[in-house]
Each structure stands twice: as structure tokens, then as C-alpha cells.
Amino acid sequence: MRLRLILLALGTFAVGTDGMVIAGILGLVAHDLDVSVAAAGQMITVFALSYAVLAPVLATLTAKWPRHRTLLIALTVFTLANALSALAPTFGTLLLTRVLAAVGAALYTPTASAAATALVPPERRGRAIATVMGGMTVATALGVPLGTWIGRSDWRLTMWLVTVLGAAAFAGLALMLRDLPAPAPAVSLRTRLAPLANRDVLGGTATTFLVLLAFQTVFIYYTVAAAPATGGDQSRLTLLLLVSGIFSVAGSNLGGRLVDRWGPRGVMLVGGTVQAAVSFALPWLMQSMTTALIASVLNPLAGWAVAIALPARLVSLDPPNAPLLLSLNSTALYLGIAAAGVTGSAAIAVLGDRWFPFASTALTLLSLAVAYVTTRERQPRPPAKTTNSPQAEGERVS
Predict the structure, then answer these.
(1) Digit-coded pLDDT (tens) for 159-217
(2) Residues 250 and 301: beta-carbon distance below 8 Å
(3) Sign of the CA dihedral 59, 62, 67, 72?
(4) What is the per-residue burial (b if ≥16 Cβ within 10 Å, else e) of 165-178?
(5) First vs last C-alpha separation in the chain
(6) Torsion angle, CA of 366/371/374/378, rounded to 10 degrees?
(7) I want to staple 364 with a disulfide (CB 3.0 to 4.6 A). Which of 69, 214, 287, 389 is the partner?
(8) Distance from C-alpha of 390 to C-alpha of 115, rounded to nearest angstrom
(9) What contacts 129, CB < 8 A, 6 or more positions away?
(10) Who contacts 109 (Cβ-Cβ below 8 Å, separation ≥6)?
(11) What is the spatial distance between Cα 8 and Cα 55, in angstroms, rounded to a whole number?
């Protein structure tokens, strides 16, 4: 059973690496395909936007498919798309292959989570999902720096690495995961979106969108932000990404513990405040490797703690509908990443390479304001005051 969960996690590791490793090779892509770094960042935008839009739609359309077949189709599309990315002759072609990769990713990740819950008894479902989705976290800690290092001389090697990871996951699942239970009854797209009518749910998803928008505005263009410290050296950039990845994992673990102790609201407000302070200091912190390493510790540590608090808050609103709420959180997350590609590009154009992290600071403060307002406990209305007039007294006596 454990091996099957690990094989599912290998797929999410491949998807996570594909979605995030582009940040480490933007400069190489831009140089090879003769586009600006800001334009190359749209690779992340089209992937994330396609994922956000397609995930709930594909989940609805394929709800009655056998899960084993769905997983294999998803990995086939994903792996083929990354091979085409590695071979793309033009930037336009490359963008099209990123959309295709998002189709496979958007189909695979929710199905893998559902398959994980079907493989274990009810009391172990949480840990099963954590194992599968842990592939995403490991992708941040290992996949991104590894892909950046492999592609330090040729970005196409990075795409071949993701292709190999996808093929390995396909082979493992084809051999070891044939007897999955039938899927649960289909849920309509309208039902999936219905929780958005709840003001608290809408506030939670809006906070998720803004937090990811703020964080990714810098991360997508990390090559630009870190250029003074790295001097364009891919090995130095790989080191910064490795440290950032390690402390992303630490931040996830810390976030889980703090959510249990403080509750989601406390973690969101404290972690968001730390993020705002770090992003404001980035133009100075990124001037040397020593201070850049400090930023690479603090920012992901706080950011990933907040990332754990966001879905925890949504689930607490309506635990029986946790799967639907988590799917909405995932969509908001990827919409934030998609918008960050545009926001970061615009910030670089307006503020310049050094000062563009200030845009992230402003967005983080906005997310803090939304989180503060939407998580305040609503006080019950005081009872209506009674009138002590003689007429009222008489009415009460009578």
C-alpha cells in the first residue's frame, strides 16, 4: 500500500517540478528563444491559468472514468507535452506545449488524491493525501534546484528531466495500481462552485488568490531579483533555490503545528506580516549571497506556513464539504500564480529589476487586510432594548 502511495506521489512530484522549475531557467529560455525574461515568465502564467480553469472542468467530465485509466491518460498527456516542450523550436510553440502539460497536470493531481483515499481505510485518508501531495513539497525542495542545475547550460535538459519523471510515474502506476475502486458518484460543476455563494468561503479563496499572487510575483522572476547576488551564475541560483526549497518543507511542517496551536487566522496574520517585511527588504537583501540566503530562509518559511493555514481555514468552515472547498482553494492558488506572471512582468517594467519586489509587498499587505477583515468573528446582535414607558409597562402587565 505504501509503495502505491509513493508512486502516486512520484506523479505529483513531476507535476510540481514542472510547474515551478521554470523560474530557475527563465534567463536561459529567454536567451535561446530571443525573448525577454518577462515574456518567458508567461510560460508559468499559461500553465497555471490553464490548470486553474481546467481542473474543475476535467474533474467533472471524467468523474465516471475508471481512476486507473484516468491517471494513465493524464500522465501520457503530461509526459508527451514536456517532451514537446523540450523540442519546441519557437516561443509560441513552447507556450502551446505548456497549455498541454497543464491539461495533464490538472487531470492527474485531483485524481491522484482521490485514488489515495480509496487505497486506505477512512481513518488513514488524511495521511494518504498528505503522502501524495507531499510530492509537491518535495518538488519545491529537490525538483526545482535539481532541474535548475541540470539545465544550467541548456534549459531543454530540464524539460527532458520532467519528461523522464512523468514516464517513470506512468510505468509504476501501470504496473502497480490496476485494482482501484470505482469512483464516487459524479458531482456537477455547479455543485463544485456552489460554496462560493458563502461569503466566508469567498473571502477564504480571495485570500488564497492574493497570497499566491504576492508570493509568486517575486518567485517567478527570482532570476531577476537574485541577479545582484548570483551575478548570473546558475550554480549560485541553484543554491538559493535549494535553500528556499528546504525551508519551504520546514515552513509546511511549522505551519501545520502552528495552525493546531494558534488557529489558521493567527498563522495567516503573523506569517503574512513576516512575508511583507521580507519582500520590502528584498531590494537590499539580494545585493549579496549572504543576505540573499537569509531571504531564502525567511520568505519560504513564512510563506509555506501561511499556505498550510489557507486550506485549513476553508475546511474549518464546512468540514463535510472539505473536498469541494479544497478544490476551490487549489483553483484560487493557480489563478494567483497565473496572475503573478503578468503582475511581476508589469512590476519589472515600471519599477525596474531591483525594486519590483515592492509590488509583492503591496499585494501581501492587501492579502493581510482581506484576511483580517474576513476572519473576524461576527458578534451577535444585542437584543432590542425595551421601552420603559408607562404604556409598555401596562402592555407587559396585561
Answers:
(1) 999 999 999 999 999 988 766 655 556 667 677 677 777 888 899 999 999 999 999 99
(2) yes
(3) negative
(4) bbbbbbebbeeebe
(5) 74
(6) -130
(7) 214
(8) 71
(9) 113, 116, 117
(10) 12, 15, 55, 330
(11) 18
Within 8 A by CB and 6+ apart from 353, the residues are 224, 225, 227
CB contact set of 312 (below 8 Å; sequence gap of 6+): 259, 264
Helical H segments across the chain, by residue range: 2-20, 22-33, 37-40, 42-61, 67-87, 91-118, 125-138, 144-150, 155-176, 189-193, 199-219, 222-225, 227-230, 234-262, 264-285, 289-317, 322-351, 357-374, 390-397
Say how far apart CA 196 and CA 144 lie, in whole Å.
33
Residue 390: predicted pLDDT? 44
pTM above 0.85, yes or no: no
Q: Decide if 186 contacts 64 (C-beta within 8 A).
A: yes
Compute CA distances 61 → 56, 57, 192, whole Å: 9, 6, 12
* 185 secondary structure, DSSP code: P
Residue 229 CA to residue 291 CA, distance in Å, equals 9
> Which amino acid does the sequence have at 321?
N
Amino acid at 308: I
Cell 541540470 appears where? 150
